[in-house]
Amino acid sequence: MDPELLEIQRHIGAHPPFDGLTDEQLDDVTRHIEISYYRAGSEIVASNQPLTALLYIRSGAVEVYRRSGDLFDRLGEGSIFGHYGLLRGRRSHYPAIAIEDTLIYAIDADVFDRLCETDNDFADFVELGRARLPSVTETQRVSNDRMATRIRKLVKRRPLIAEADESAREAARRLADEPAAALLVVDARGDDPRYTYADANGELWQVMGILTDADFRARIVAEGRSVETPIREIVSEELVAVQSDETVQEAMLAMLRHNVHHLAVVHRRRPIGVIRLEDVVRYETQSSLYLIESVFSQRHPNGLARLLPDVRNAAVRLVRDGADSRTVGTALSSIGRSFARRLIELAEAELGPPPVPYAFMAMGSMARNEQTLVTDQDNALVLDDRFDPQQHDQYFLKLAQRVSDGLDACGYAYCKGDIMATNPRWRQPLSVWQRYFRSWIQAPNAERLLHSNIFFDLDNLYGEERLIETLQELVATEAGQSPALLAAMSRNALNRTPPIGFFREFVTEKDGQQNEFINVKRRGTAPLTDLIRIHALACGSRARNSFERLADIKETSLLGPGVADRLSYALEVLSLARLRDQVLDIEEEREPDNNIEPRNVPAKQRAEIKEAFRALSDAQKFLRFRYPGPSNRIRTASR
Amino acid sequence: MAAGRERRDRWQPWLESMAQGSETADLRHFYEAFPGNPADPIGTTPLAAIDLETSGLDPRKHAILSIGIVPFNLRSIATGASRHWILRPPRGFSGESVAYHHIRHFDVEQAPDLGDVLPEILESLRGRLPVVHYHPIERRFLDGAVRERTGTVFRFPLIDTMEIEARRHRRPWRMRLGRLFGRTPASIRLADSRERYGLPPYEGHQAVVDAIGTAELLQAQIQHHYSNSTPIGDLRV
């Protein structure tokens, strides 16, 4: 290499995707550059033109536009563009304009092709934007030992199988003979192909469910039934099964989600074993499940607060083990719920039984199963309609205060918007809540909705399920029917836009110490979650988790093909970026927050994050078009 | 053509006479192919940025240490075509013991004399209008060195990016006005000039890097103050 061109080589070699190249490859690049200067405002690439080079920004800034004229990307020093066009027949797709005086290094297309052929990382980087969805989680999983542990490793013995017509006595006797604590109940007359398998004789059986010691206790002894009762009548309806190649983590989550202590493990459809909670706990003593167990064994709120480091450790381990955001979100939400439940139990134990039935309602991220390490409490009390403020409110205020103070001590900060059961507005009987929801749905107002958005993600935390179910039903059936509500929510969802020119200095924010950061919640996950909520309401989805909502949305034709997958990808990338940065904060003994500092983000992830922001930006454009709000017009008119 | 005649300047007859009168064939070819018509638009004229590293400012006492040449045009600057020569200073010239920037002593000992590489240098300049930043250095050093070795005068028109910068920032009335308001005159050194056009700082004092930097600066200057159709007669000195 001519040492004279080192100046150029050093700059290129410090930026992705070139930073991973060998010296020889870099020499090849540096020798095949044509430098051009573009004054601010001039066009660097016109759309649909032959492309002969990959374009690298040495200095300045460039905006790439879609053919529609919308901004596609804003790029700064060290970024590349034109690679999409090079990969697709060497023709430009989008025009690019210099928005500052810009110096471009144009790297010969033949060199680009050579690099794509010989360097997988380079090829991955430039091909991003094509279906990248599977690879993100794939690589994480493979790279990780613990996450790669299949549940079948924990299966120690073949399952005990009993036919549904066997008597309880017969089944119990077989259980007593074996060290196993559970029986798989099978039935020849099943109609669910998912759990139907053929035995060694070619006979077809369907797995109905799992029968445990507890079932005999509860359904035979406690209910005084005959021991001759066929077990078909005492086995619980729902079968929770995992595939044998799913990970321990996934099995654990299945238990958490369904609140069961036993899982059937199936290979394809054939049952190969039963896994007990204890098996998993033994395997993962420091796991979130273990943590939940210890939450419920605490006798005092102070004891709960002392578990905060354990919560953080559990999350750090999940993230470090390469768990996806949904796993972490569900685990943290389950932990959060158990804290709240235990606090309510302790409060009730002290205050005595409630004067009227009530439900403690969780909202926002906890209801969506999307909690991170930085979370505040959003909760409310839904009281039975027999509630009389004069007589009863004293009790519920005290209850709310204890729970709220306890949660704060455990690391769930007070809600800044005061959406907590301690606020009398959010401590009301069901009929008042119904009125609230009807007024939000029928006469929405963007300002008023701004803080009550999270009420559309609600879940029962403790108490009378039916109170919450009534509200959930109301939301699921009525919210989607109100164009005014969807429009008002859309307007709010569009308030926060993603930083399209991410990693370019002028779009980051500065904190007090003048460090650059991006609030990935405010600019990413929150607007994305808002947007998903609106589409979910519109299509009548009852799911609360954003990924589940997207799966429901995907079933409809509301969004174009592939859009729901792209949003899932975006949510995963942004949520993980947020979690990873929080974990980094904890490991470096800082208080975790929702900001990510671009300099802490490896180059590859930056590209993923950019892609995610782009997906969000596109989805917001669609939202604006789909729900043009009357409130927008009113606002314009009043100016 | 009338316009062409009007545009004739002092350089055209000079280039024509040198094309006939030069001592060596290399130099004759160089002058023959020189883009001499002052009416030619800058946008279509092949250019070559030159930068010299010298051991001082006086061509009678100091020597050329290295030469960087980068052929280019207003559309693009090809890095792969850049050339660089490290030269061994003649005996008696200051420079033998100079601390070379970026050049190892070993390289200098092995380096050729300018006379040895002159054909290559002329070849890479052939048919191109040279571009430099601060032309007195390049003009006087090259002329002195070539004349000493070939007996032929080595002078030709060239574009000086510092001169272009000076036209904008060192106009006498502007400078007087500026001083009146206590403003110091804008620096027209290469790095400072580049900064005004948003060009990145390059680590200076390497002949090729400075030549590339000069080429980029000219692209910027033409885009900001002139156009591709500006005749080279308006720009060259």
The main pleated sheet of chain A reads as:
4 strands, antiparallel
Low-confidence stretches of chain B: 1-5
- Going by helix content, strand content and strand pairing, the class of chain A is alpha+beta
Determine the most extensive contact between two protein chains: A-B, 28 and 28 residues
Number of domains of chain B: 1
Strand content of chain B: 5-15%
Shape of chain A: globular
Mean pLDDT of chain B: 84
Largest sheet of chain B: 5 strands, mixed
Number of strands of chain A: 22
Helical stretch count of chain A? 25
Share of helical residues of chain A: 40-55%
GO molecular function (chain B): 3'-5' exonuclease activity; nucleic acid binding
Pfam families (chain B): RNase_T
Keywords (chain B): Exonuclease, Hydrolase, Nuclease
Domain Exonuclease (chain B): 46-227
Quick summary:
By secondary structure, chain A is of the alpha+beta class. Chain A is built from 25 helices and 22 strands.
Account of the 3D structure:
- Chain A: Residues 155-227, 235-291 form the CBS domain.
- Chain A: Pfam families: CBS, cNMP_binding, DUF294, DUF294_C.
- Chain A: This is CBS domain-containing protein.
- Chain A: Keywords: CBS domain.
- Chain A: Residues 17-115 form the Cyclic nucleotide-binding domain.
- The complex is a heterodimer of chains A (639) and B (237).
- Chain A folds into four domains: 3-128, Jelly Rolls, CATH 2.60.120; 151-285, CBS-domain, CATH 3.10.580; 288-443 and 455-466, Beta Polymerase, domain 2; 492-626, Four Helix Bundle (Hemerythrin (Met), subunit A).
- Helices cover 47% and strands 16% of the residues of chain A.
- Chain A is built from 25 helices and 22 strands.
- Chain A has a four-stranded antiparallel sheet.
- Chain B is of the alpha/beta class and 237 residues long.
- Chain B has a single domain (1-234), classed as Ribonuclease H-like superfamily/Ribonuclease H (Nucleotidyltransferase, domain 5), CATH 3.30.420.10.
- Chain B is 44% helix and 12% strand.
- Chain B has ten helices and six strands; from the N terminus they run αααββββααβαβαααα.
- Chain B has helices at 2-7, 11-21, 25-33, 105-110, 114-125, 135-150, 161-169, 172-180, 190-196, 207-225, and strands at residues 47-54, 64-72, 77-78, 83-86, 129-132, 159-160.
- Chain B has a five-stranded mixed sheet.
- In chain B, helix 2 packs antiparallel against helix 3.
- Chain B is globular, with a radius of gyration of 18 Å.
- Residues 1-5 of chain B have low confidence and may be disordered.
- At the A-B interface, helix 1, strand 1 and strand 8 of A face strand 3 and helix 10 of B.
